[in-house]
Predict the structure of Dolichol-phosphate mannosyltransferase subunit 3.
Amino acid sequence: MTKLAQWLWGLALLGSTWAALTTGALGLELPSPCREVLWPLPAYLLVSAGCYALGTVGYRVATFHDCEDAARELQSQIQEARADLARRGMRF
């Protein structure tokens, strides 16, 4: 099962549970405070998922590993290219 399928199944399960509880399809009489929290629950979950995604991206950017060996190699290649171009008459 792919990750997308897992997410879709989870969303379908949560959505159907939410719909059944809010419409009263299960025959349960929920107390008023529970119903007041239950109605905006999808919006809360969406905002929470967005905050989690933003935090994850921020953390990954903050802890991004630099490739110092590759940077040194690239700098040396740039110097070689400049020297080659200078030999051919190009000025910098």
